[in-house]
Each structure stands twice: as C-alpha cells, then as structure tokens.
Write a structure and sequence with these properties.
Domain AtuA-like ferredoxin-fold (chain B): 4-102
Pfam family, one (chain B): AtuA_ferredoxin
Largest sheet of chain B: 4 strands, antiparallel
Strand order of the largest sheet of chain A: 12-13-9-8-1-2-3-7-4-19
Number of domains of chain A: 2
CATH topology of chain B: Alpha-Beta Plaits
Number of strands of chain A: 19
Mean pLDDT of chain A: 94
Oligomer: heterodimer
Protein name (chain A): DUF1446 domain-containing protein
Shape of chain A: globular
Number of domains of chain B: 1
Distance between the termini of chain A: 31 Å
Order of helices and strands of chain B: EEEHHEEHE
Protein name (chain B): AtuA-like ferredoxin-fold domain-containing protein
Number of helices of chain B: 3
Number of strands of chain B: 6
Largest interface: A-B, 44 and 30 residues
Organism (chain A): Teichococcus oryzae
Low-confidence stretches of chain B: none
Strand content of chain A: 25-35%
Low-confidence stretches of chain A: none
CATH class of chain B: Alpha Beta
Radius of gyration of chain B: 14 Å
Distance between the termini of chain B: 8 Å
Radius of gyration of chain A: 25 Å
Structural class of chain A: alpha+beta
Chain lengths: 464, 109
C-alpha cells in the first residue's frame, strides 16, 4: 500500500542498517516482515558516520564516480526488487559525499535486476563547501573556540531534516538517497509523507523523531551493544533481528522486530537506546524538532513489543549543525606479543625500550602504550580460546600508538615496534603495525536560511 | 553497609559526540533509583574519569525511566578522530562507570 493512500493506517518503518559496517544480511528479514504486514511501510538504511563522509570525500577526489557508501549496493541487492514490488520505499543516507553517484549505481543495479522503472531520488544541498554558508558558521558549544581555516576543509556537511525526503517520497521515489541528514529524518520523512503531519505539529514530530532515534542504530535497540552474560542475556546474537517501529497517525510509537530472529526488544534495550548519544534529555536538537523525552513512559505490551508514549516537542532550532572535517595528522600503531613466564615484565621492558627509542630518534608527537591480553599466541586455531596451562602465566600484547603531524614520524614509530623482533626482549612475536591518516571533525551551527536542499528524481536515461 | 559495584544494581550505555561522552545509567529495579541518585553523584563520576582529563560532569535525572544521563566533558582524549586510545569512541566506558562502588543498606544487600 503506497504511503499516504490511507493516512489513518498504521505505518511500519524498518531499519536494515545502523552504521557503515553493519551486517550486510540484516535488511532481508526486516523487508520480509514489512512486506508480510501488507500495510504501508518504509525501510531505512543508516550507513553514514561522522568521519565516513570525509573519507568518502577524499575517495571522490581520486575517483569522481565514487564517494558513496561502498556497501550500499550489497545492502540493496537482496531487497530492492521485492521492496519496490510491494510499494515499500527505501530511504538511505548512503549517498555520503556523492548521492548522485550512488543513485547512478543504484539505477544500474536496478537494470541488472530487471527493474527498469525504479524511481530513484537524490537529496542534495547538505554539502556546503564552496557556498556562502561556510563563512557564516559559529562553533557548536562542544567545540567552543574552534577556528575554521576554509582552505583546509575536506568536507563540510549540514544535517538536513526530513522535508526533502518527504518531498522525494511524495514525488513517487522507490529509493531515496541522501548525503548528510539527521539519522531520525530517515524515519520521519516517510512518516510525514504518509500521515501528512504539519511541520509545526511539534508533539507528533517529536514522537516520530523519537521512533527514528530508536531505529537509527539498528540492532542497538534489539539486543546489540547490550548483552552482558548473566545480567542481560540475549538470545541468538548471530541472527539479531533489526528493529521495526509501528507508528500511529496520532504519533503512537511501538518498537518490535521480525519474528524468528534473534535478539530481544524489552524495556531495558529500549531505555538504553532512547538515551544513546543524548545530552539534555529535555532538549534533543534535531533539524525538525527539539525533542523532550523526560516524560516518556515505556511499556512492555508483549514479548518483543515495547510501547513508548509521552514524547514532547518544541519548535525546531533556527540553526542547523554542520560537521566540518579537517586533516588530523597521522597515527602510527604497532603491537607485539609476549607470553608465558615473565611475559608482563618482558612486555613492559619492550614498552620502555620503545619510548626511549622515540626520544632517541627525536620524533615529534604523542605516544601511548597499552598492555592487552588474555588468550592468544599460545592457543590453537578455531576460536576455542583455551587459556594455556598453569606454567605459562600471561599472554600480554604491547601496543604503541603514536600521533604526529608528520607522516614520516608516525611511520618510523610503527617501524620501531617491528624492530623489536631482533632488538627487543626475549620471545617477542606477532607484530602487526599500521599507519593511518586522520581526520579531525568539528561541529558548527549554520543559519537555516543559508541552505537550499534540493530533490531530483533520476531515471535510467540519466544513467546512460 | 556493604559495598557492591554499580553493575549489581544498574546497566549502562555509552555514546559519544566529539570529545563529549554520555553515559546512560539505568537501574534494574525502580526501587533502587533513589539509592543511585544519592550515591552516583556528578562529583564521584567526575573523579572516576579525572585520569582521562574529564573537566565537568552534568547529571540529568529521569526517574520515570529509572535512569540518569551523565554528560562528561573532554573525556575522550580527542574523540574518535584524535585519541591514541584503542577505543576512541569511549564505547567501553559504560563499564568503567559500572565498576563504581555503591554502599547497600544491610537489609537490601
């Protein structure tokens, strides 16, 4: 049933991905459950982290058609056809630094799958590099005092709200691809398209945003990032069901998950996710509404069915948050293991030796050491995690981390861990090292009037 | 009085935004919320994270959810993009909080 054809009907919104890196087979059971329900529904895929966008922007520099979520097609392939056939739109922020490139790739996938009529919409306007908005930013309170050097900016993206997603759905999109937008907007957009709530109906927008917030991290509300053996046990972590919200026209919210999947939805899992990444619970700022959850009541209606009521909304903020990414120097890391008698002392000697070496070489940067370990180098393969016998106390892995503005210094520090094979304490083995370039992100506030979000529907002709 | 780790009475989840950490602390039983309110103070949580450079803690009380939300400033050593720590997000830090000791009245132990 298309969104909006009967606005009094319950709307189901499923979430098939909670971050870039989530389980690729998660959307399938969610799509199946939405289709089986027979009612109006939408499926969201949240795949865009704070730094993902900057990495994508860098990738696009080398490869203009890239810069969107690399796993997007893998997520879409198993579900695109059956969701389109059932009239269930998919909404994703997997466009990252290149929503148009993602749409082109999705259209090619659609052709390959025999879906030539698939309607794909892109939402653009979150990228504010090269616009006047970049010169009209104030630091967000958490980054007070931050100064922006525009010429160093790798990525600068505003968190857009639900309105462009709603517009795309009203124009008939089967797949909506955005860049940066608030995560709850991926759920709120379909709600506005279906129910036609006014953009100043703050309490309903708050309820919808709360539902989106509960969905946005996928399994984090159904037993992921939650299990604590003997305290909070979760059935079948290997087949966690991803969440589905059932939304009423009046803003009623119920969180559940597909049948015959692992995980659990209960008061505790829902409470943890409700408060996740929240600061003032009376004023959770989103582009669409300021959400107040202080009066929310949580009720377990049935196994894996939890109702939330009492979200309050206040007028949306006049300024929107923008994440700006800048080069953040280099990180060199190296690890080496010691096990058996006197392992800890040998690992600590290795650590002291490394710090002396860094000083001796005059490397500019900041160092850190860690001692890690329970079971590793003495054990067999296969994941048994057998602790070695009593005569071999200890399995210690020394880690060096070294941050520097200089790539050469970070590489040299990592190499010093490798050099411990021949120059370090007895029985050192299993060195791994890597050097990564880092991205620093800062948050700023930008006036709404500076932004011009736009929606474009694309077809295979555009992809030709 | 007997002392137990907070882990006995509550569960928790950590979230990050930049160099700021939020810790949701939730009582397993509604009746334990007042005891947590009395003992898990902003000052004690700040002391718990002081070695990591935390500068301030704000506690928001949510009795209807059996919960508290602690917002800890400057505790993530630069955050996911800047920290040398393996866990730049601070995702593990909910269990640092759950190691905090609370005193139980004998009858409730």
């Amino acid at each position: 049933m298309p969104l909006g054809s009967d606005p009094s009907a319950l709307l189901r919104i499923g979430c098939g991905s909670g971050f870039s890196g989530d389980r690729l087979d998660a959307p399938g059971p969610v799509a199946d459950a939405l289709i089986a329900s027979g009612g109006p529904a939408a499926l969201m895929l949240e795949v865009l982290g704070e730094r993902t966008l900057a990495l994508a922007q860098r990738e696009r520099l080398h490869k203009p058609e890239a810069g969107f979520e690399p796993a997007l097609l893998d997520l879409l392939r198993p579900i695109l056809g059956r969701c389109a056939a059932a009239g269930i739109p998919i909404v994703t922020n997997g466009g990252a630094a290149n929503p148009r490139g993602a749409a082109m790739a999705a259209l090619h996938l659609a052709r390959e799958l025999g879906l030539p009529a698939l309607r794909v919409a892109v939402v653009e306007g979150d990228d504010i590099r090269g616009t006047g908005a970049l010169s009209d930013l104030d630091p967000w309170e958490g980054d007070a005092g931050a100064v922006l050097e525009p010429e160093r900016v790798i990525a600068a993206n505003v968190y857009l709200g639900a309105a462009p997603i709603t517009e795309a759905l009203r124009r008939g999109a089967d797949l909506v691809i955005t860049g940066r937008c608030s995560d709850p907007a991926l759920a709120l957009g379909p709600m506005l398209a279906h129910f036609g709530w006014s953009e100043t109906d703050w309490d309903r927008l708050a309820a919808g945003t709360m539902a989106g917030h509960l969905l946005e991290c996928g399994a984090q509300v159904t037993g992921g990032y939650f299990a604590d053996p003997g305290v909070k046990d979760i059935p079948s972590m290997a087949t966690l069901g991803f969440p589905i919200a059932e939304i009423g026209a009046d803003g009623a919210v119920l969180i559940t998950k597909p049948e015959n999947t692992g995980g659990r939805v209960d008061r505790r899992s829902v409470t943890e996710q409700l408060l996740y990444e929240l600061h003032d619970p009376a004023a959770y700022l989103t582009p669409d509404v300021v959400l107040d959850i202080t009066g929310v009541a949580i009720t377990e209606e049935a196994p894996d069915r939890v109702r939330l009521a009492g979200a309050r909304g206040h007028p949306r903020p006049e300024r929107l948050k923008a994440t700006v990414s800048l080069p953040g120097g280099w990180l060199g890391e190296g690890e080496i293991s010691y096990a058996g008698p006197n392992a800890r002392a040998r690992a600590e000697l290795a650590g002291r030796t490394l710090l002396e070496r860094l000083r001796h070489l005059g490397l500019e940067g900041q160092a850190r050491l860690d001692l890690i370990g329970v079971v590793s180098v003495f054990d067999g393969d296969g994941g048994a995690l057998r602790e070695a016998n009593a005569t071999s106390p200890g399995d210690v892995r020394l880690r060096l981390a070294f941050a520097s503005e200089s790539r050469a210094a970070a590489e040299r520090a990592a190499r010093e861990v490798l050099s411990l094979y021949c120059c370090g304490p007895a029985g050192g083995g299993g060195v791994r090292s890597r050097v990564t370039d880092r991205i620093r992100t800062l948050s700023f506030l930008v006036p709404r009037a500076r932004l011009a979000p736009r929606v474009t529907l694309l077809s295979l002709e555009d992809a030709a | 009085m007997s002392a137990v780790p907070l882990h006995r009475l509550a569960h928790a989840r950590a979230g990050d935004k930049g160099n700021r950490l939020n810790l949701a602390l939730i009582a397993h039983r509604a009746e334990d919320w007042p005891l947590l309110a009395e003992q898990v103070t902003e000052a004690r949580v700040l002391a718990l994270f002081a070695h990591r450079g935390a500068t301030a803690v704000r506690r928001y009380d949510l009795p209807g959810l059996r919960a508290f939300n602690f917002v800890v400033e400057d505790v993530l050593q630069g955050g996911v993009n800047g920290a040398l720590n393996l866990d730049g997000h601070g995702k593990t830090l909910s269990f640092l909080l759950l190691g905090l000791e609370v005193a139980l009245p004998e009858a409730a132990g």
